[in-house]
User: Which sequence fits this backbone?
């Protein structure tokens, strides 16, 4: 099988020696071409060109942002209000070898955290013809894989991206500290968000909102963070939105999403699973992040789930 390996050499946990080992392992079973990214957006350009050239498989070695770029490179841009899958045509399958700090997408698919182990796992999955179709989500004309957020998490992502630009690595601790600083700053302001759900339900007075296409929402080291455990790649979106910035409610919900398994619940928490779309409006511009990438300030964002959009190399779900 022909395959293109797209490598982000600047991803958090990649190394030159590791990339050589991965390339050697994959080349033993695949007709492999390797391309390294040189700038932001380059992975999307490489993936789009590989799609035109008819590659059946693209393997991504990098973080979640690189995977997101690849998916947006191989698929046509989503249309506003799109709720059903598009005719895909000849679109490559995607496999992921972790290389970032969180690797949420790879871990959600059950891919081994060690890059060389993941490469060998992918070869085994290909040999056994194991793959699955997953649903994606989109907002602002961009596909996303597992999560997006308006407010708190976006502002934390923005702060960490600034640190990374100055040469500091992205770590769970750095994200947590950035999130705490953003929370302490923003809790002094009035809530700016309104969440609109299907059926006409409108929830005002929201401080921040997370939208999930999969669960876990993210990881803290090895521990999954479960905001919407009822959400998966096979159903709709999850919404997690806080209507309080009080220390006690936030602390209780934070403990539930880190140490619980049945899903958080609180009278100040708006949480719904499996909705086809959700809209978040803001009375003042608020940050937006998608799959861990800061997009910019927005005052009106519509999120949509679209089933059966992407073929990935992973174990088939139970019962399939």
Assistant:
């Amino acid at each position: 099988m022909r395959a293109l390996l797209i490598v982000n050499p600047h991803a958090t946990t990649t190394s030159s020696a590791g990339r050589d080992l991965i390339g050697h392992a994959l080349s033993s079973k695949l007709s492999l071409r390797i391309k390294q990214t040189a700038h932001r957006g380059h992975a999307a350009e490489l993936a789009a060109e590989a799609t035109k050239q008819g590659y059946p498989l693209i393997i991504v070695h990098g973080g979640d942002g690189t995977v997101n770029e690849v998916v947006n490179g191989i698929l046509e841009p989503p249309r506003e209000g799109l709720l059903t899958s598009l005719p895909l045509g000849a679109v490559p399958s995607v496999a992921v070898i972790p290389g970032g700090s969180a690797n949420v997408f790879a871990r959600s698919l059950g891919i081994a955290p060690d890059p060389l182990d993941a490469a060998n796992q992918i070869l085994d999955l290909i040999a056994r013809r194991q793959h699955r179709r997953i649903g994606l989500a989109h907002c602002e004309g961009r596909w996303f894989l597992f999560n997006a957020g308006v407010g708190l998490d976006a502002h934390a992502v923005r702060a960490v991206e600034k640190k990374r630009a100055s040469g500091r690595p992205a770590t769970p601790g750095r994200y947590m500290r950035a999130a705490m600083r953003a929370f302490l700053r923003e809790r002094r302001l009035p809530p700016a968000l309104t969440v609109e759900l299907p059926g006409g339900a409108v929830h005002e007075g929201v401080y921040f909102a997370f939208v999930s296409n999969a669960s876990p929402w993210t990881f803290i080291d090895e521990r999954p963070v479960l905001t919407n455990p009822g959400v998966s790649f096979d159903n709709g979106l999850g919404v997690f939105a806080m209507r309080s910035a009080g220390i006690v409610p936030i602390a209780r919900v934070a403990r539930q999403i880190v140490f619980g398994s049945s899903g958080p619940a609180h009278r100040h928490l708006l949480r719904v699973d499996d909705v086809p779309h959700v809209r978040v409006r803001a009375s003042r511009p608020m940050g937006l992040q998608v799959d861990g990438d800061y997009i910019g300030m927005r005052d009106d964002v519509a999120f949509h789930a679209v089933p059966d959009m992407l073929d990935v190399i992973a174990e088939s779900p139970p019962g399939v």
